[in-house]
Structures are given as C-alpha cells and as structure tokens.
C-alpha cells in the first residue's frame, strides 16, 4: 500500500464510496455469492473500503474483457430482461422511487434475480439499469402456466423439404444449418412434475431465449408495485407510461456484425443478419425457423405470410406484364387511337368546351397520345386479366390456409388459440375491473366489466371512426373542387388558337389536372393517416378490451376502415362516379351549383384511374420504405451520439440495446396494415393497371429485407409472443377478395371502353372488312352551338355551328333532341349483362377451387395424428414406468418394515 498510485486510487475510491454504497447494498446478495475474498462484513471501515476498491477494479476489468457479455457479473446467470430509469428531479421523484423499490422487491419475491448497474457506470452518467435473470425454478413454473411445449423425443417423421423442382431451386436455398437450426421433436406441454420426461441436457439452454424473455415479460406485466387510490396497481406498462421506468426490453444475444465469443451462446442475431437481412440475398428464401426461435411465433408468421404473398405475386406479375406487353405491341394497330390521331378524322372533329366561358373548343386529335396510352391498359387482355386475378386471389387465400396449417404443425401451434389467446387477460383490463365473475370455461373467478360500462366508449369509438371517414370524404371533395377550379386555369394556358390547328402535347389540361390532383390527394392521405393512428389507439385503449386478441381486433377494424376510405376513396370516385353524371352541353350538372362536374377523356376515365392508382400506390410504397429505413437509422445515430459522452467508460451490451429504437407492441400491426392496403391496390383496381402486381412484387422483395434489416440492426429485440395465424387480417383479405370481383367487373364495364366497342362491333358496324372503322364518330353525339346558354358559351366566338361530346344522344334535328338514343340502352344492357356473367363465372370458379383445395394438406393431417399418437404413447410409458418404480420402492420399504417387525418380535421373545 506504499505505492503512491495505489494510494491515489484508494483516495479516489473513498470519495466515491458514499455514492456506491447504495449500489452494493442492492447487490449484496449477488456479491455474497462470489469468492470468499470479497466478503467484507467483518473488516474495519478502512479495510472495507480498500477491499471495495479492489472488488470494483476486478469487476470493471472483467466487464472490460467482455464488453458484449449478456451475463451478470458472475459470468454465469444470463440476462433475460433489462429495465432502465433515470433520477427524476420533479415532485414525483420520491413516488417513482418508492414504486420502483416496491416493484423490484415483488419481482424478487416471484423468484427473479436482479442486478443493478449504477448510473456512474453508464455511458451517459445518468441512467440506471436493472438486469433481470430468470432462474430454473421460475422458468419451469411459468412454462407450465403458459403451456409452453418442449421436446420429449426426436421426431421420426422426415422433413417435407423436397419439391418437384428442388434441383432447379438450389441457388435460392439457404444452408441446412440456417434453414433448420434444430432437429424436429415430438413435444408436450411442460410440467414440473414430469421433468424427467423432457430432453433436458443443459438447464441454461433448455428454454430458448425467446421463451425466457416471454416468461419474464409475463411476470413483469402482472407484478404489483403498490396500492394507489384504493386500487392495486401492477404491470410494467403502467410504470413505463408514468415514466417510472424509461424502458423495458430483452437483450439481443450479441452484435449483428460479428459472431459471439465464448462464454456467450451462439449469436443468432449475427446469423440472421448474414443470411436474412442482407440486400444481396433478396433472391434467397427466409430462415423462418430461426426467425421464430429468435423473435417468437408472432413475428415469424408475419414474415412467412409476407414471403408467401410475394411468391404468389410472381405469377400475377408475369401475367400482368404479358398483358401490358400485348397492349404495347398492339398500340399502333388500335383502330380507335388511329382514328383519333388521323388529321382527316380526329383532326376534323370539333369537341365542345370542357369548362364554361374560359375553355375553348378543341379538336379530337389533341388527345392522340392520351388515347394511345389508354390502349396500354384498356384492350382485349383487360377482361382476361380481371378474370385471372379473381382466380388468383382465390388460389392465394386457399394455398395460404394450407401453408398456415403446415406452419401450425411445425411450430406446435395446433391447440394454441383456445389454450392461450382466449384465456389470458390484459393487465389493464384486470386493473380497471372492480367486478368479478366465474369464467364459464375455466370455472375460476376473474375480473369482469359490465356491458353498461363499455357502451359509452363504444358509441364514442363509432362516432370517432365515422367522423374521420367523413373527414376523408370531405377532403376528397375538396380535391375535386381544386381540380375543377384549376382546370380552367390550365385550359386558359394550354388552350389557344393553335389547338384548333395542331395536335397538342401529351400534357392536356385533363392529364395535368389529374396529375396535380393525385399528388395533392396523396399528401392529404398521409396527413390524415398520421393523426388518425394516434386517435384510434387511444380510443381502443379506452374501450378496455378483455384480451390482447380483442384489443388488436378492435384496433384493426378501426384502422382498416379508415385506411380503406382514405386510400381508395379517390380511386372509387374516378372509377365509378367521374364522368357518369356530367349531363350534356347546355344542361350540365354542377357541384354545389358552382363548379361543372368533371368529364372523362374521350377515351374514357381509365387513364386517369391508372394515373391515380400509380401515384398513390407507388408513393405509399416508396414513402413507407424510406420511412422504415431512414427514420430508425437517423434516430439511433443521434441517440448514440448524445449518449457517448464518456468514451473511456464501458459501452455495455444493455446500453447498446438501450440506444436502439423501440419496435413497440403495434409495430407488427402497421406492417400487416401496409401489406393489406397494398393487397387492395393489387386486387380491387387491377383491371385498370395490370402492372400493379409487378410493382407490389418489387416493393415486397425490398420490404422483406428492409424489415429484416431494421429488426436485426436498428430495433431493440421485441418481446417474443405466440400467434397461430395472421388473425383478423385473414377475414379482411377474404372480404377484399370478394369485393375485388365486383369492382373489376364494374371497371371493365363502366370505366373502360371495352363494352361500347363490342356493342359497336357486333350490332352497329357497317364495314365487314374493318368492323371497328367509324367507332369514334359513332361514340360522339352532336350538339348545336346555338343551344348553349349564355353563361356557358365560350368567351371567344367561333364560326362552328356544332360541336361533339361523348355520349349516346339524339342529334339536334331529332324530334326528341338530346335524349338518350337506343344505342345507349343497348350499351347499358350489355354492361349489366357482362357484370352478371363475369361475377357468376368468377364466383363459381372461386367456390369450386375452395371446395377442391383442402384447408389442411393430407400429409399434415397424417403428421399431426402421428405426433399425437407418439406423444400419448410416450406419456403412457413414462407414467407406467414411474408407477412401477413407485411400486418397487413401496415393496422394498414394506419388506424392510416386515424384517424390522420380525426382529422386534425376536428381541421381545428373547427378552421374555
């Protein structure tokens, strides 16, 4: 102790002794379990402080050598969960400290082991960390409570990995040790009293880390922290909401850029990053079993669904691309666009103005490029593709049911729903309920909330959703008013005397207005969506749902109804309302008696619907991917930059995870919602845009790797949760699949120009050699310019006597002038007939396919039966052997008892 450097360090440690006293008192139990040289209870104060210093130095060096350690300081007990908090200087500081003290004491009473890291050891110098370890007894107790299934025997059923084209798909496959990190086992629900039955080689690794953090979170969510206002308060979520703790999360098992070193376990995070989160592996299959082992079944099944959906999109994208190529190749041979572009035909047709006063007359050939572009998506292949997508969506949903059934078997989720999801109550529900009622299933008394207490919140919830959907409609009307208002401005700039002599550019007033209106509509969609997300989550919480499943179902319904109206309302307007109630020159329909209703292009509204769909769908996908990738990256960089103020201190594993972004309990919900909204774009309006499946396919290929990258590198590890299916989203997909048949039939009938062309071809064409010749002139009616009212006639006078407009009406010299002619009724009858026939054909094929394809594959049924049989046999043999052993022991004890009694008798006789 004569060394001046040592003395200086001792003095420094003495100055810190008062600050560290609390730290070592809290961890006294952990420290007492160390080497005997660390025992300090019998030493004088000076020697005690010196040993405190030595201990501190030894511990610091040990931590420094294992910067990425996921263990307590003893290097044995694994960290299963981490809580963090900072000292509060406000009025509630004492209350929060008391809550934490009570909470941590109750955690210890449940059997959990805690170790606290003082803020002096933290990188930022102000954050405390509470490390939690679940010992074996706690794990086995709650594994039985949660019904976790564990292996009892290695399965003798071979894996079903071989496919008819497995040799060709070799480059797409992952290494076997990554795809199947563990062997397959027969499993049974874990029971403490049957521990000998299970394949327990090492207690520290028997339960996977996902099961361990799920068990700890289950305890945290139900652990009480005091009584306030006469009510028992409990649950980590309440403590997080009140900022008593700043965060609660399970640890990642290592760094994502390097494998772990002993004694840490195998770094599954690194394996996932290398084989799943790399963009260069976009063509590879996903390691679903590894995802499930690391993140839990709920996240795992989302990636299985997203991967399956992407695979099925490949077939739809190929057919859609083929239809687009057909339209591209036949574009110049299209008789309608040829007539429109012909200076002798379309160039001689004078069209009526598209707005009052400000708009001038214009020649039909000014829409030449628009008519050619329209043919790309409005041709003979449109009907075929609409019918194909109706069949495709049926196959997708039926095959997904099979994939889901196979997944339930492989991941031991066959009996999960009734055992777990329906019976486990939300901690918030338990805390809010003052009534008790016997559960009809469990026959146990549990919290109960009367319906009368929920009705006001249900009314508020319904009113809120209705109000916001009405707001969406109002915003859509505002965008329509914008387009009507600025159309005249665009027309005044773009219409001129030259428009009556030359063909204009591709940017006509209609297309320009449509483009700007679609962009404005997309911005409004994003703004409304931002606010509604927060309101819907608050309303759902106030409804006090009983279980987590009820909470997610309620939130899903609210969010989907709003997003459905938000994203699709403008597309429905263009597809089914725009141009349908315009009226005719001299008797136009006006919106609010001010703005004249919008008209479609002479080639129909399909071009505008395609434009609207492309901008919203592409914009949403690009914005979503940028937000998902850039937002957490920038946020984490800024958080680490603020935290790393003391670079000489240890930047521990828990601190590194603490500085990552939180995935949140609703993170997966928004991923599903994004995918389902995209599914709507692909199915509901696909007849107008056959490239929609291709855009969705490209987006999903990127989406999978973006989601994998952000989960693996940018987010804290989510708490593992179980799920046996995609839940209520599956019902939503079925509803959208049925609706898509009707919408595509109506798009082909009323939005495209297919049916009028067919009617002309078969009923009104007079040219046997070129049946479609004269169709454009036939589809335009004649209006006498003298019949224009004064308030609608163009400001500049022209020497034309008539102009043309798109409709089937009688000419001015007819006795019933401007009334619909017979061809109009023929076309309308043909449209309704087509809708009925298409819907019946597609629905018949859908029901036939659904009947032919079983929900559960035959081999899966056989595997489930085999596993149940083997499980029953193994349990029977175990109980039988245990009974025999007990009988043998009892027989041995009885024989010993007889010998003792006989000896006593002999002794008594000899004594007599």
UniProtKB/TrEMBL annotation:
Protein name per the record: Anoctamin
Pfam families listed in its UniProt record: Anoct_dimer, Anoctamin
Compartments, as annotated in UniProt: Cell membrane; Membrane
InterPro entries recorded: Anoct_dimer (IPR032394), Anoctamin (IPR007632), Anoctamin_TM (IPR049452)
Transmembrane parts of this sequence: 301-329, 382-400, 458-491, 511-532, 555-576, 676-698, 732-752, 824-849
Topology in the lipid bilayer: Multi-pass membrane protein
Originating organism: Phocoena sinus (Vaquita)
Occurrences of domain Anoctamin dimerisation (ranges): 71-287
Similarity remark: Belongs to the anoctamin family.
MF GO annotations: intracellularly calcium-gated chloride channel activity; protein dimerization activity
Keywords, comma-separated and alphabetical: Cell membrane, Glycoprotein, Membrane, Transmembrane, Transmembrane helix
Cellular component, GO, one term: vesicle
């Amino acid at each position: 102790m004569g060394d001046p450097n040592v003395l200086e360090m001792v003095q420094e440690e003495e100055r810190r002794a008062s600050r560290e006293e609390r730290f070592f008192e809290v961890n006294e139990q952990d420290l007492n379990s160390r080497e005997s040289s660390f025992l300090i209870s019998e030493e004088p104060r000076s020697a005690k402080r010196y040993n405190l210093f030595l201990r501190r130095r030894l511990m610091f060096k040990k931590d420094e050598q294992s910067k990425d350690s996921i263990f307590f300081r003893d290097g044995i007990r694994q960290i299963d969960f981490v809580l963090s908090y900072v000292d509060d200087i406000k009025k509630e500081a004492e209350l929060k400290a008391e809550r934490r003290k009570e909470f941590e004491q109750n955690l210890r009473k449940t059997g959990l082991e805690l170790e606290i890291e003082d803020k002096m050891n933290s990188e930022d110098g102000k954050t405390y960390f509470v490390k939690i370890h679940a010992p074996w007894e706690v794990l086995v107790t709650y594994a039985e409570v949660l019904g976790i299934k564990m292996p009892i025997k290695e399965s003798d059923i071979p894996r079903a990995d071989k496919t008819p084209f497995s040799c060709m798909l070799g480059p797409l496959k992952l290494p076997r040790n990554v795809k199947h990190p563990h062997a397959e086992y027969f499993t049974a629900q874990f029971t403490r009293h049957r521990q000998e039955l299970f394949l327990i080689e090492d207690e520290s690794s028997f339960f996977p880390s996902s099961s361990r953090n799920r068990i700890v979170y289950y305890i945290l969510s139900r652990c009480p922290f005091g009584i306030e206002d006469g009510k028992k308060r409990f649950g980590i979520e309440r403590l997080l909401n009140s900022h008593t703790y700043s965060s609660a999360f399970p640890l990642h098992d290592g760094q994502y850029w390097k494998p772990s070193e002993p004694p840490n376990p195998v770094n599954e995070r690194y394996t996932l990053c290398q084989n799943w989160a790399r963009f260069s592996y976009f063509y590879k299959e996903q390691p679903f079993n590894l995802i499930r082992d690391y993140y839990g079944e709920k996240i795992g099944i989302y990636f299985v669904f997203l991967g399956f959906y992407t695979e099925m999109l490949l077939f739809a994208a190929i057919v859609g691309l083929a239809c687009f190529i057909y339209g591209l190749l036949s574009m110049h041979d299209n008789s309608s666009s040829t007539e429109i572009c012909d200076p002798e035909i379309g160039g001689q047709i004078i069209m009526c103005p598209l707005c009052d006063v400000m708009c001038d007359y214009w020649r039909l050939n000014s829409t030449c490029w628009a008519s050619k572009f329209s043919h790309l998506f409005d041709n003979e292949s449109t009907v075929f593709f609409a019918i194909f997508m109706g069949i495709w969506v049926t196959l997708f949903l039926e095959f997904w049911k099979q994939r889901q059934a196979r997944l339930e078997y492989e991941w031991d989720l066959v009996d999960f729903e009734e055992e777990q999801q329906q019976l486990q109550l939300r901690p918030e529900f338990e805390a809010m309920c003052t009534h008790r009622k016997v559960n009809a299933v469990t026959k146990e008394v549990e919290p109960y909330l009367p319906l009368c207490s929920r009705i006001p919140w249900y009314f508020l919830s319904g009113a809120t959703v209705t109000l916001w959907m009405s707001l969406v409609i109002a915003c859509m009307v505002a965008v329509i008013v914008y387009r009507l208002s600025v159309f005249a401005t665009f027309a005044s700039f773009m219409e001129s005397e030259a428009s009556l002599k030359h063909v204009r550019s591709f940017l006509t007033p209609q297309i320009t207005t449509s483009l700007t209106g679609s962009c404005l509509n997309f911005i409004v969609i994003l703004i409304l969506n931002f606010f509604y997300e927060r309101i819907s989550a608050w309303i759902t919480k106030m409804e006090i749902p009983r279980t987590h499943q009820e909470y997610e179902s309620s939130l899903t319904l609210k969010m989907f109804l709003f997003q459905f109206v938000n994203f699709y309302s403008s597309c429905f307007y263009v597809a089914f309302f725009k141009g349908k109630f315009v009226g005719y020159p001299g008797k136009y329909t006006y919106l609010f008696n001010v703005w004249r209703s919008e008209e479609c292009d002479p080639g129909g509204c399909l071009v505008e619907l395609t434009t609207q769909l492309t901008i919203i769908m592409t914009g949403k996908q690009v914005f979503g991917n940028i937000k998902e990738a850039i937002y957490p990256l920038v946020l984490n960089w800024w958080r680490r930059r603020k935290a790393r103020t003391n670079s000489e201190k240890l930047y521990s594993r828990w601190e590194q995870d603490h500085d990552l972004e939180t995935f949140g309990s609703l993170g997966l919900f928004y991923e599903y919602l994004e995918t389902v909204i995209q599914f709507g774009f692909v199915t509901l309006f696909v007849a107008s845009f056959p490239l929609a499946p291709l855009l969705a396919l490209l987006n999903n290929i990127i989406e999978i790797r973006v989601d994998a990258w952000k989960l693996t590198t940018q987010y804290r590890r989510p708490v593992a949760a179980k799920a046996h299916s995609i839940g209520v989203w599956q019902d939503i997909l079925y509803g959208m699949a049925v609706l898509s048949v009707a919408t595509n039939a109506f798009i082909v009938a009323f939005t495209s120009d297919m049916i009028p062309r067919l009617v002309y071809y078969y009923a009104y064409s007079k040219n046997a050699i070129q049946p479609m010749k004269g169709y454009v002139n036939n589809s335009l009616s004649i209006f006498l310019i003298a019949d224009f009212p004064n308030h609608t006639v163009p400001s500049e006078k022209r020497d034309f006597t008539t102009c043309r407009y798109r409709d089937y009406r009688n000419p001015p010299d007819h006795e019933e002038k401007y009334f619909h002619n017979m061809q109009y009724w023929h076309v309308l009858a043909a449209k309704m007939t087509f809708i009925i026939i298409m819907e019946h054909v597609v629905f018949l094929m859908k029901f036939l396919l659904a009947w032919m394809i079983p929900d559960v594959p035959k081999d899966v049924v056989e595997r489930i039966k085999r596993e149940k049989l083997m499980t029953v046999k193994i349990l029977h043999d175990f109980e039988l052997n245990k009974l025999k052993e007990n009988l043998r022991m009892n027989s041995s004890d009885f024989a010993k008892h007889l010998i003792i009694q006989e000896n006593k008798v002999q002794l008594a006789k000899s004594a007599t």
